[in-house]
Design goal:
heterodimer, A: mainly alpha, 0% strand, elongated, B: 205 residues, mainly alpha, Rna Polymerase Sigma Factor, Chain: A, Arc Repressor Mutant, subunit A, 2 domains, globular, binds zinc ion
Chain lengths: 88, 205
Amino acid sequence: MLNCRQISRLFSRSQDRPLTFKEKLSLRLHLMLCGACRRFAGQLRFLRQATVLMETRAFTEEPVKLSECARERIKRTLSSCGNNESAV
Amino acid sequence: MPSSLPPDERQATAPETWLDSYGDYLYRYALLSVRDETLAEDLVQETLLAAFKGRQSFDGRAAERTWLTGILKHKILDQLRRQYREAPLQDDAGAEVEEEGYGMNDVFTDEGRWVSRPSAWNDPAKATENAYFWEALHGCIERLAPKQRQLFVLRELHGNSNEEICNEMGISMTNAGVMLYRARMSLRQCLELNWFGQRPTQEKL
Ligand SMILES: [Zn+2]
Protein backbone atom coordinates (compact mmCIF):
# COMPACT_ATOMS: atom_id res chain seq x y z
CA MET A 1 0.00 0.00 0.00
CA LEU A 2 1.39 3.39 -0.99
CA ASN A 3 1.69 6.17 1.56
CA CYS A 4 0.39 9.72 1.15
CA ARG A 5 3.68 11.10 -0.13
CA GLN A 6 3.84 8.47 -2.84
CA ILE A 7 0.22 9.09 -3.69
CA SER A 8 0.81 12.83 -4.03
CA ARG A 9 3.53 12.09 -6.60
CA LEU A 10 1.43 9.55 -8.39
CA PHE A 11 -1.44 11.99 -8.66
CA SER A 12 0.83 14.71 -10.00
CA ARG A 13 2.17 12.21 -12.53
CA SER A 14 -1.38 11.37 -13.58
CA GLN A 15 -1.72 14.96 -14.74
CA ASP A 16 1.22 14.51 -17.09
CA ARG A 17 0.85 11.05 -18.52
CA PRO A 18 -1.60 8.16 -18.37
CA LEU A 19 -1.02 5.88 -15.39
CA THR A 20 -0.59 2.14 -15.72
CA PHE A 21 -3.44 -0.07 -14.64
CA LYS A 22 -1.64 -0.97 -11.45
CA GLU A 23 -0.90 2.68 -10.65
CA LYS A 24 -4.50 3.64 -11.25
CA LEU A 25 -5.67 0.90 -8.97
CA SER A 26 -3.43 1.85 -6.06
CA LEU A 27 -4.34 5.50 -6.51
CA ARG A 28 -8.04 4.77 -6.47
CA LEU A 29 -7.74 2.47 -3.50
CA HIS A 30 -5.79 5.01 -1.48
CA LEU A 31 -8.15 7.86 -2.34
CA MET A 32 -11.07 5.73 -1.24
CA LEU A 33 -9.56 5.32 2.19
CA CYS A 34 -7.76 8.63 2.73
CA GLY A 35 -9.66 11.90 3.09
CA ALA A 36 -6.49 14.01 3.20
CA CYS A 37 -5.35 12.76 -0.19
CA ARG A 38 -8.84 13.19 -1.60
CA ARG A 39 -8.63 16.84 -0.65
CA PHE A 40 -5.17 17.07 -2.14
CA ALA A 41 -6.36 15.54 -5.40
CA GLY A 42 -9.22 18.00 -5.49
CA GLN A 43 -6.81 20.86 -4.97
CA LEU A 44 -4.58 19.81 -7.85
CA ARG A 45 -7.59 19.35 -10.12
CA PHE A 46 -8.78 22.81 -9.22
CA LEU A 47 -5.30 24.23 -9.76
CA ARG A 48 -5.31 22.85 -13.28
CA GLN A 49 -8.76 24.21 -14.09
CA ALA A 50 -7.91 27.60 -12.66
CA THR A 51 -4.72 27.80 -14.69
CA VAL A 52 -6.59 27.10 -17.90
CA LEU A 53 -9.14 29.76 -17.00
CA MET A 54 -6.30 32.13 -16.23
CA GLU A 55 -5.11 31.89 -19.80
CA THR A 56 -8.40 33.01 -21.23
CA ARG A 57 -9.67 35.19 -18.45
CA ALA A 58 -6.97 36.88 -16.41
CA PHE A 59 -5.45 38.38 -19.52
CA THR A 60 -8.51 40.36 -20.38
CA GLU A 61 -8.61 42.00 -16.96
CA GLU A 62 -5.04 42.76 -16.20
CA PRO A 63 -4.05 46.36 -16.82
CA VAL A 64 -0.64 45.47 -18.29
CA LYS A 65 -0.20 46.99 -21.72
CA LEU A 66 2.48 47.34 -24.33
CA SER A 67 4.24 50.66 -23.83
CA GLU A 68 3.58 53.35 -26.43
CA CYS A 69 7.24 53.23 -27.30
CA ALA A 70 7.24 49.50 -27.99
CA ARG A 71 3.99 49.79 -29.91
CA GLU A 72 5.48 52.43 -32.19
CA ARG A 73 8.61 50.41 -32.71
CA ILE A 74 6.68 47.29 -33.67
CA LYS A 75 4.41 49.28 -35.96
CA ARG A 76 7.41 50.74 -37.75
CA THR A 77 9.05 47.35 -38.16
CA LEU A 78 5.87 45.83 -39.51
CA SER A 79 5.18 48.56 -41.99
CA SER A 80 8.76 48.60 -43.29
CA CYS A 81 8.46 44.88 -43.75
CA GLY A 82 5.16 45.34 -45.57
CA ASN A 83 6.62 48.00 -47.86
CA ASN A 84 9.53 45.81 -48.78
CA GLU A 85 7.22 43.01 -49.74
CA SER A 86 4.92 45.07 -51.89
CA ALA A 87 7.93 46.65 -53.63
CA VAL A 88 9.18 43.24 -54.71
CA MET B 1 -15.06 41.72 -34.29
CA PRO B 2 -12.86 40.23 -36.96
CA SER B 3 -14.00 36.73 -36.08
CA SER B 4 -17.49 37.46 -37.37
CA LEU B 5 -16.21 38.33 -40.83
CA PRO B 6 -16.13 35.75 -43.60
CA PRO B 7 -12.76 34.00 -43.94
CA ASP B 8 -11.53 35.90 -47.00
CA GLU B 9 -12.07 39.23 -45.32
CA ARG B 10 -10.42 37.99 -42.18
CA GLN B 11 -7.36 37.08 -44.16
CA ALA B 12 -7.24 40.57 -45.50
CA THR B 13 -6.77 42.24 -42.11
CA ALA B 14 -3.59 44.26 -41.97
CA PRO B 15 -0.87 43.49 -39.41
CA GLU B 16 -1.35 46.98 -37.97
CA THR B 17 -4.81 45.96 -36.86
CA TRP B 18 -3.36 42.88 -35.26
CA LEU B 19 -1.11 45.05 -33.17
CA ASP B 20 -4.03 47.19 -32.05
CA SER B 21 -6.38 44.30 -31.43
CA TYR B 22 -4.09 41.68 -29.96
CA GLY B 23 -0.84 43.46 -29.08
CA ASP B 24 -1.60 43.83 -25.38
CA TYR B 25 -2.96 40.33 -25.10
CA LEU B 26 0.11 38.81 -26.73
CA TYR B 27 2.35 40.99 -24.60
CA ARG B 28 0.75 39.79 -21.36
CA TYR B 29 0.88 36.26 -22.58
CA ALA B 30 4.58 36.53 -23.30
CA LEU B 31 5.28 38.32 -20.01
CA LEU B 32 3.91 35.45 -18.00
CA SER B 33 6.49 33.13 -19.48
CA VAL B 34 9.57 35.27 -19.86
CA ARG B 35 9.06 37.91 -17.15
CA ASP B 36 11.20 40.40 -19.01
CA GLU B 37 9.48 43.37 -20.58
CA THR B 38 11.94 43.95 -23.40
CA LEU B 39 12.01 40.29 -24.24
CA ALA B 40 8.23 40.14 -24.20
CA GLU B 41 8.03 43.14 -26.55
CA ASP B 42 10.49 41.48 -28.91
CA LEU B 43 8.47 38.30 -28.85
CA VAL B 44 5.32 40.20 -29.80
CA GLN B 45 7.15 41.84 -32.66
CA GLU B 46 8.61 38.54 -33.86
CA THR B 47 5.19 36.96 -33.66
CA LEU B 48 3.50 39.68 -35.71
CA LEU B 49 6.30 39.61 -38.27
CA ALA B 50 6.06 35.85 -38.61
CA ALA B 51 2.28 36.13 -38.85
CA PHE B 52 2.62 38.77 -41.55
CA LYS B 53 5.00 36.64 -43.55
CA GLY B 54 2.91 33.54 -43.12
CA ARG B 55 -0.47 35.18 -43.52
CA GLN B 56 -1.22 33.09 -46.61
CA SER B 57 -1.22 30.03 -44.42
CA PHE B 58 -3.92 31.47 -42.18
CA ASP B 59 -7.02 29.70 -43.39
CA GLY B 60 -9.45 31.69 -41.32
CA ARG B 61 -10.77 28.63 -39.58
CA ALA B 62 -9.27 29.48 -36.22
CA ALA B 63 -9.90 32.82 -34.61
CA GLU B 64 -7.15 35.30 -35.41
CA ARG B 65 -6.15 35.59 -31.80
CA THR B 66 -5.80 31.83 -31.44
CA TRP B 67 -3.68 31.74 -34.56
CA LEU B 68 -1.42 34.52 -33.33
CA THR B 69 -1.18 32.96 -29.86
CA GLY B 70 -0.08 29.71 -31.49
CA ILE B 71 2.77 31.50 -33.24
CA LEU B 72 3.70 33.26 -30.02
CA LYS B 73 3.84 29.94 -28.15
CA HIS B 74 6.41 28.70 -30.64
CA LYS B 75 8.42 31.88 -30.26
CA ILE B 76 8.37 31.56 -26.49
CA LEU B 77 9.49 27.96 -26.67
CA ASP B 78 12.31 28.97 -29.04
CA GLN B 79 13.31 31.70 -26.65
CA LEU B 80 13.33 29.39 -23.63
CA ARG B 81 15.31 26.81 -25.54
CA ARG B 82 17.96 29.41 -26.37
CA GLN B 83 18.02 30.43 -22.74
CA TYR B 84 18.46 26.82 -21.63
CA ARG B 85 21.28 26.33 -24.08
CA GLU B 86 23.12 29.34 -22.69
CA ALA B 87 22.56 28.43 -19.05
CA PRO B 88 21.78 24.75 -19.00
CA LEU B 89 19.76 23.85 -15.96
CA GLN B 90 21.97 25.52 -13.39
CA ASP B 91 19.46 25.54 -10.60
CA ASP B 92 18.34 22.04 -11.40
CA ALA B 93 21.27 20.33 -9.78
CA GLY B 94 19.00 19.01 -7.09
CA ALA B 95 16.20 17.92 -9.39
CA GLU B 96 17.29 14.31 -9.64
CA VAL B 97 16.76 13.40 -6.04
CA GLU B 98 16.06 9.99 -4.64
CA GLU B 99 12.58 8.65 -4.42
CA GLU B 100 12.08 9.28 -0.75
CA GLY B 101 13.48 12.74 -0.05
CA TYR B 102 11.97 14.70 -2.89
CA GLY B 103 12.46 17.92 -0.97
CA MET B 104 9.10 17.49 0.74
CA ASN B 105 10.28 16.85 4.26
CA ASP B 106 8.24 19.67 5.68
CA VAL B 107 5.10 18.40 4.00
CA PHE B 108 5.31 14.70 4.82
CA THR B 109 6.53 12.82 7.86
CA ASP B 110 9.22 10.17 7.54
CA GLU B 111 6.47 7.61 7.23
CA GLY B 112 5.00 9.54 4.32
CA ARG B 113 1.97 10.97 6.10
CA TRP B 114 0.78 14.55 5.75
CA VAL B 115 2.32 16.82 8.38
CA SER B 116 -0.76 18.98 8.16
CA ARG B 117 -3.83 17.74 6.38
CA PRO B 118 -4.74 19.61 3.21
CA SER B 119 -7.61 21.87 4.14
CA ALA B 120 -10.99 21.85 2.52
CA TRP B 121 -11.02 24.60 -0.06
CA ASN B 122 -14.26 26.38 0.32
CA ASP B 123 -16.13 26.73 -2.95
CA PRO B 124 -13.16 27.01 -5.31
CA ALA B 125 -15.45 27.66 -8.27
CA LYS B 126 -16.61 30.83 -6.57
CA ALA B 127 -13.03 31.92 -5.95
CA THR B 128 -12.50 32.17 -9.69
CA GLU B 129 -15.18 34.86 -9.83
CA ASN B 130 -13.09 37.03 -7.55
CA ALA B 131 -10.51 39.25 -9.22
CA TYR B 132 -8.27 39.03 -6.16
CA PHE B 133 -8.11 35.30 -6.52
CA TRP B 134 -6.44 35.73 -9.89
CA GLU B 135 -3.96 38.09 -8.35
CA ALA B 136 -3.22 35.55 -5.64
CA LEU B 137 -2.75 32.75 -8.15
CA HIS B 138 -0.60 34.94 -10.35
CA GLY B 139 1.51 35.89 -7.35
CA CYS B 140 1.94 32.24 -6.36
CA ILE B 141 3.10 31.35 -9.87
CA GLU B 142 5.49 34.29 -9.87
CA ARG B 143 7.04 33.11 -6.64
CA LEU B 144 7.97 29.68 -8.01
CA ALA B 145 11.62 28.98 -8.67
CA PRO B 146 12.35 30.15 -12.25
CA LYS B 147 12.70 26.74 -13.88
CA GLN B 148 9.66 25.39 -12.09
CA ARG B 149 7.65 28.38 -13.18
CA GLN B 150 8.68 28.05 -16.81
CA LEU B 151 7.86 24.38 -16.85
CA PHE B 152 4.55 24.94 -15.14
CA VAL B 153 3.57 27.72 -17.53
CA LEU B 154 4.57 25.66 -20.57
CA ARG B 155 2.72 22.64 -19.30
CA GLU B 156 -0.45 24.10 -17.83
CA LEU B 157 -0.96 27.41 -19.56
CA HIS B 158 0.41 26.62 -22.97
CA GLY B 159 -0.79 23.03 -22.80
CA ASN B 160 2.43 21.48 -24.10
CA SER B 161 2.86 17.78 -23.42
CA ASN B 162 5.71 16.65 -21.20
CA GLU B 163 7.35 15.02 -24.21
CA GLU B 164 7.32 18.30 -26.12
CA ILE B 165 8.77 20.19 -23.18
CA CYS B 166 11.49 17.62 -22.56
CA ASN B 167 12.48 17.50 -26.21
CA GLU B 168 12.63 21.27 -26.48
CA MET B 169 14.53 21.84 -23.28
CA GLY B 170 16.71 18.79 -23.34
CA ILE B 171 15.70 17.64 -19.87
CA SER B 172 14.65 14.16 -18.86
CA MET B 173 11.03 13.20 -18.28
CA THR B 174 11.97 12.36 -14.70
CA ASN B 175 13.36 15.84 -14.20
CA ALA B 176 10.32 17.47 -15.69
CA GLY B 177 8.04 15.31 -13.56
CA VAL B 178 9.92 16.22 -10.40
CA MET B 179 9.88 19.93 -11.18
CA LEU B 180 6.19 19.92 -12.05
CA TYR B 181 5.43 18.02 -8.86
CA ARG B 182 7.33 20.59 -6.84
CA ALA B 183 5.61 23.43 -8.65
CA ARG B 184 2.18 21.96 -7.94
CA MET B 185 3.05 21.31 -4.31
CA SER B 186 4.25 24.89 -3.86
CA LEU B 187 1.24 26.32 -5.62
CA ARG B 188 -1.29 24.41 -3.56
CA GLN B 189 0.54 25.42 -0.40
CA CYS B 190 0.73 29.02 -1.54
CA LEU B 191 -2.96 29.14 -2.40
CA GLU B 192 -3.82 27.49 0.88
CA LEU B 193 -1.89 30.16 2.76
CA ASN B 194 -2.70 33.17 0.64
CA TRP B 195 -6.19 32.50 -0.44
CA PHE B 196 -8.14 29.65 1.05
CA GLY B 197 -6.48 29.79 4.46
CA GLN B 198 -7.59 33.28 5.35
CA ARG B 199 -11.18 32.80 4.42
CA PRO B 200 -13.10 33.21 7.65
CA THR B 201 -15.94 31.06 6.30
CA GLN B 202 -13.63 28.13 5.92
CA GLU B 203 -14.68 24.97 7.76
CA LYS B 204 -17.27 26.87 9.72
CA LEU B 205 -19.02 24.75 12.31
ZN1 LIG C 1 -3.29 9.67 1.81
